Amino acid sequence: MKTISLFDRPLEIRDTETKGRGVFALEHLPAHTCIEISPVLLFQKEQYENHGQYTVLNEYTYVWSAGRQGLALGLGSMFNHDRCPNVYWKKDEPNRCISYFTLRQVHPNEELCISYGDQLWFDDGSASSHNHYDQPEEENSFLQNLLL
Ligand SMILES: C[S@@+](CC[C@H](N)C(=O)[O-])C[C@H]1O[C@@H](n2cnc3c(N)ncnc32)[C@H](O)[C@@H]1O
């Protein structure tokens, strides 16, 4: 299957050339739009250390409190990494979910990507296939604050 449409949402899961599947916008999305709220499945520290980390889960989970790891259900596990992301995320630990927002205006057919940080475990496809959107200064500082 090449694409999965998401019914009433202007988003689609597509195969990419170098990154596996990814999430794409089908229309213009304004900055700071909430595009997804993913419920999170939590793994206890021991469960993850003894089992989870040796499986494919290790490419998908988010660090959670008390040494736990969280798997974002829904779209949250489908966002690829970009060193200049157009999506940021916020953990909501009490409600065990992660919300995802656009960092800037997103154009139709643009891939929606988050930043995984500096320690990548794969060859970064975003380094070469980077989109050439010039991020305005104020959006840049907003991103810097989030990542600090
Ligand atoms: C959370 S998953 C993202 C969804 C994944 N593409 C899929 O098809 O299931 C993380 C994995 O996606 C791939 N990936 C994400 N961002 C990438 C990038 N910038 N360059 C290459 N591979 C990437 C890597 O294989 C990574 O382990």
Automatic annotation (TrEMBL):
<feature type="domain" description="SET">
    <location>
        <begin position="9"/>
        <end position="117"/>
    </location>
</feature>
<dbReference type="GO" id="GO:0005634">
    <property type="term" value="C:nucleus"/>
</dbReference>
<dbReference type="InterPro" id="IPR001214">
    <property type="entry name" value="SET_dom"/>
</dbReference>
<dbReference type="InterPro" id="IPR009207">
    <property type="entry name" value="SET7_MeTrfase"/>
</dbReference>
<keyword id="KW-0489">Methyltransferase</keyword>
<keyword id="KW-0808">Transferase</keyword>
<dbReference type="Pfam" id="PF00856">
    <property type="entry name" value="SET"/>
</dbReference>
<protein>
    <submittedName>
        <fullName>Histone lysine methyltransferase Set7</fullName>
    </submittedName>
</protein>
<dbReference type="GO" id="GO:0032259">
    <property type="term" value="P:methylation"/>
</dbReference>
<dbReference type="GO" id="GO:0005737">
    <property type="term" value="C:cytoplasm"/>
</dbReference>
<dbReference type="InterPro" id="IPR046341">
    <property type="entry name" value="SET_dom_sf"/>
</dbReference>
<dbReference type="GO" id="GO:0062122">
    <property type="term" value="F:histone H3K37 methyltransferase activity"/>
</dbReference>
